[in-house]
Write a structure and sequence with these properties.
The chain has 10 helices and 6 strands. It is of the alpha/beta class. It folds into 2 domains: about 5-15 and about 90-215, 3-Layer(aba) Sandwich (Rossmann fold); about 20-90, DNA polymerase, domain 1 (Orthogonal Bundle). Strands 3-2-1-4-5-6 form a 6-stranded parallel beta sheet. Helix 3 packs across helix 4. The protein starts with a strand and ends with a helix.
């Protein structure tokens, strides 16, 4: 039986591309490319810094990644930086998220976020999206100073709730995150919003869904 529904934040609950989309006219004709590069570098920096044991707050990595994206894309308007960073604190959640979290919350199980994001970033995003009453805890890697996908990140959930790995249903749109959580022992649901091909075949998810609505069709 699932005792806790734990969600990745960025890309799973919150649309990481909504910041650029909101200011696309200011960014320029290649706004989508800027957003893609921004996200890829944000993740890359988290992985490399963990490997180097040189932790830096996720907000700092987010700003550094945006600097790179704006420099990388020739048509990008660098003056849009402040608007984009401000918007990142208020990312849009995906349409189904409030309903899904409401129904899961009504089961009496824990509903939590486990994210690379700093505590401040997560609390701001949750509040902005109107999810504060639906999320019990925002568990941030800033507690341990290491990013996903190290096992110590997933261990925080077990330490906080005093449950076993198999009691956790973990949802993420990031296949690498799902692979790590599966290897750790969580029940895993890959929210494959972009219809991406599967990978990490030796660490498969328990379920693959196109959005989070599938959770409320089958929870327990």
């Amino acid at each position: 039986m699932t005792q806790a529904y734990v969600f990745d934040a960025y890309g799973t609950l919150f649309d990481v591309h909504s910041a650029v989309r909101k200011h696309a006219d200011s960014v320029g004709p290649d706004a989508d490319l800027v957003s893609d590069v921004w996200r890829q570098k944000q993740l890359e920096y988290s992985w490399t810094r963990t490997l180097m044991d040189r932790y830096l707050d996720f907000w700092d990595l987010t700003e550094q990644a945006l600097d790179f994206a704006l420099a990388k894309v020739p048509t990008a308007n660098k003056d849009a930086k402040k608007k984009l960073l401000d918007a990142y604190w208020h990312l849009e959640c995906f349409d189904e998220v409030p309903t899904v979290l409401t129904e899961l919350k009504e089961t009496g199980k824990k509903v939590a976020i486990l994210s690379n994001g700093s505590s401040g970033m997560l609390l701001a995003a949750v509040k902005s999206a109107g999810l504060s009453d639906l999320v019990d805890d925002c568990i941030s890697v800033d507690r341990i100073g290491r990013f996903k996908a190290v096992p110590a990140v997933y261990q925080m959930v077990l330490d906080d709730y005093q449950i076993s790995a198999n009691d956790v249903s973990f949802q993420s749109s990031n296949r690498w995150d799902i692979a790590a959580a599966s290897a750790f022992g969580f029940q895993t649901v890959w929210c494959n919003r972009g219809d991406q091909p599967d990978e990490y075949s030796d660490m498969p998810p328990d379920r693959i869904v196109s959005d989070l609505n599938a959770l409320i069709a089958k929870h327990g």
